[in-house]
Amino acid sequence: MLKIRCVALLVLCNVSTCYAQSDPSGKDWLMHGRSYDDHRFSPLREINDQNVATLGLAWSHELDTTRGLEATPLVKNGILYFTGAWSVVYAYDAKSGKLRWKFDPKVSRENAYFYCCDVVNRGVALFAGKVFAGTLDGHLVALNENTGVPEWTVNTVENNNRAYSITSAPRIARGNVVIGNAGSEYGVRGYVSAYDAETGKLSWRFYTVPGNPANGFESKAMEEAAKTWHGDWWTFGGGGTPWEGMTYDPDLDLLYFGTGNPTAWYRELRGGGNSLYTSCILAVHAKNGELAWYFQTTPGDNWDYDATQPFVQADLTINGQLRKTIMQANKNGFFYVLDRQTGEFITGSAFVDGINWAKGLDEKGRPIENPGVTELKARLISPGPFGGHNWTPMAFGDSTGLVYVSAKSGTFFLHAPGSEVKYDPDRWNHGLISYEGPLSDQLMAAPPVRGELLAWDPVAEKAAWHAPSPVAETGGVLATAGNLVFQGRGDGIFVAYRATDGRQLWSFDAGTGIIAAPVTYSVDDEQYVTVLAGWGGASGLISFHGYGPVKPGYGRVLTFKLNSHARFAPPVYKHESPPAKFTTDASPELIKKGGTIYGGNCSVCHGVDAIGGPVADLRYLSRAKLDHLEDIVLRGALSKAGMPSFSKILKAEDVDAIRAYLISRSRELAAQK
Ligand code: CA
């Protein structure tokens, strides 16, 4: 049995104390997950499983970027509000596709190497006539919803010399705009901040990890957390950045969020311990930010198992008892059902195959680790770096009781920890070192990753159906009362499935990979579906082996309605020049050295083995650029385009080695063609 919580809240109170609204009619899509419970389920049924075959393009617009687009658009009174690459905010007329306004916060491209996982943003919040957005450089802006003109801006970052960033959508809770941050790979101290929506004044801040004990602890929660850390963790910041999943229950007045990995990644490099409150689900009181409860999904995380995946709240009858639950398909491969009043573990089970770091969960939900998995030695761990599921939003079918998740089975991570890690503010401080050996060959020989849309029954703790994808990465999910589930894929195909059994009923080639979640709404009594297509994000940049034939390209917004046939002729995505057999006298040793330097500094954006995606594939670099590589890498010649100077990290001799490596990779590609 399923009880649907009423989310129709009226705005009757003073603006500084009241709540945002969801729209029970489904006409508007006013908050990130449509309603407070983040079901991403629309009651609209004009587009349904009987007629979706006639769905067609109403309009599309190019967004002038090749970087990842991850935002969920919001819709109010026929206006679409969303964010694109570099934290640019857009407002479009949803019916005509006409641009109303655009706001560019002009984020400095100089710090792009502090943005671990592409220059993405996952959307805006709407409240009190304003549009709120976080920016890559850690600011929170409040824009007038009619004009896009800023009404206030705050710098949410306490120390701008550390690698903080924001990629998540703000959420509204109790008249506050709540925002987290990212940066645990580099080493920062995570926190969630709540700002008064009217004034931008800080209402409260909740740190997710303790600071330097010599400065005193901000709260009892920090004092308790400090007992689970060792050594001088605060010099690394600690991590635990709350960089995505966040949801609010206005009845309980609790705000829930997940935290990222500790810094460094490896437990033994941190001296052991649980490292609270990293890789953890927390509930805080929205009125003051005080801790209500926590549930650490991966205690003493060793594998970058951020607990930042989006949540769904639902009231479910489990073992004959009606439970107020909060659910998460965690990066670590387990699907958790918790009591959202108390944090009590109700159930948890593997939702992907091949988990090898733990054999299961105990009765309290603590993982039962396999022996030796945290030793400081290289091993292949599954799930891999992007998890069984990562940041893509899930949906909950109010009519089916199923949770729809973009899931991946068979991912691996070659974990090769060093023996120590020293904090360096300009680098990742995870403790991973480069590795060459038999595990690399095993990784390359592993079967392709199996991506899918998974329909998970959270009461029965098993899959109801699977819709396999030809590529590992699939996008966020929308469910509707028309018995439909919409989802895009990394190969650019946007699909509608029948919600009850996963049968594919419709598809559209958007021309570039889709990772964002679609939304639906109605204008003048006509139902529309909108999605952003733009390949990128962490896995898009890195282009992992075994992730399938993904499609980089130019990003766009696409809107669909029934019986519509708008012309669609997107620009063709091309490389800078064909790969060439450039002559070279570089020694094999120099090429090898260049490959190591490339792997440690360039591959996160330009791809493993220089196989690029959304950011330039450097195997196609022109001779002119190769000749001027020092200007580009050390003197910031292309910094305005997002390629920062690496002068703090690399030297001229390093650039010579990288050049030799890239020429070698270009020659290898040319020989294949
Ligand atoms: Ca992480």
Helix-strand blueprint:
Blueprint: E1 2-3, E2 41-42, E3 55-62, E4 74-76, E5 79-83, E6 89-93, E7 99-103, E8 125-127, E9 130-134, E10 139-144, E11 150-155, E12 171-173, E13 176-179, E14 191-196, E15 202-207, H1 220-226, E16 246-249, E17 254-258, E18 280-285, E19 291-296, E20 312-318, E21 321-329, E22 334-339, E23 345-350, E24 358-361, E25 367-369, E26 379-381, E27 395-396, E28 403-409, E29 413-415, H2 438-445, E30 450-457, E31 462-468, E32 474-480, E33 484-489, E34 493-498, E35 504-509, E36 519-523, E37 526-533, H3 537-542, E38 556-562, H4 588-601, H5 603-606, H6 623-627, H7 629-635, H8 652-672
Parallel strand pairs: 2-32
Antiparallel strand pairs: 1-20, 3-38, 4-5, 5-6, 6-7, 8-9, 9-10, 10-11, 12-13, 13-14, 14-15, 16-17, 17-18, 18-19, 20-21, 21-22, 22-23, 24-25, 26-29, 27-28, 28-30, 30-31, 32-33, 33-34, 34-35, 36-37, 37-38
Helix pairs in contact: 4-8, 7-8
Calcium ion is lined by residues 184-185, 260-261, 304, 306.
Notes on the protein architecture:
With 673 residues, the protein is mainly beta. It folds into two domains: 2-562, Quinoprotein alcohol dehydrogenase-like superfamily (Methanol Dehydrogenase, Chain A, 8 Propeller), CATH 2.140.10; 588-672, Cytochrome Bc1 Complex, Chain D, domain 2. The protein is 11% helix and 30% strand. The strands form ten sheets. A five-stranded antiparallel beta sheet has the order 1-20-21-22-23, with no helix packed on it. It has a five-stranded mixed beta sheet with strand order 2-32-33-34-35, with no helix packed on it. It has a four-stranded antiparallel beta sheet with strand order 3-38-37-36, with no helix packed on it. Strand 33 (484-489) and strand 34 (493-498) form a beta hairpin. Helix 4 crosses helix 8 and helix 7 (629-635) packs across helix 8 (652-672). 56% of the residues are buried. Mean pLDDT is 93; it is low at 1-17. The site of calcium ion has 6 residues, from loops. Calcium ion binds at residues 184-185, 260-261, 304, 306.
